[in-house]
Design goal:
124 residues; mainly beta
């Protein structure tokens, strides 16, 4: 497994932007497809975005398409989630997750490595 550490969360006003980082370490982190999930209070964990390990292909939840982007710095084993035009409903704990040689699934059970999460709070 790979160790994942998220950072970059915090409070932000609606319409603002944040960039989350997911730093991967351990054995062969470059082979891991990385996804972002989020969980709001009282709600199930939901898929946000993913970037495949080899192709770099990206996939987004409909709720964030056009507002969020995902990228990876393979030299430093960091995946970024750029979040623009943030809305109140984006408030959640954001988790990054990894799957070795993964296909970029939006299903959380596909991933066996998880970070501790970082809180994003959007307010008016």
């Amino acid at each position: 497994q790979v160790r994942l550490v998220e950072s970059g969360g915090g409070p932000v006003q609606a319409g603002g932007s944040l960039r989350l980082s997911c730093a991967a370490s351990g054995q062969n982190p470059e082979y891991y497809t990385i996804a972002w999930f989020r969980q709001a209070p009282g709600k199930k964990r939901e898929f946000v975005a993913t970037i495949a390990w080899a192709s770099g292909r990206t996939r987004f939840a409909d709720s964030v398409k056009g507002r969020f982007s995902i990228s990876r710095d393979n030299a430093n084993n960091v995946v970024y989630l750029q979040m623009n035009s943030l809305q109140l409903e984006d408030t959640a704990v954001y988790y990054c997750a990894g799957e070795q040689h993964g296909a970029g699934s939006p299903v959380s059970t596909s991933y066996d490595s998880w970070g501790q999460g970082t809180q994003v709070t959007v307010s008016t």
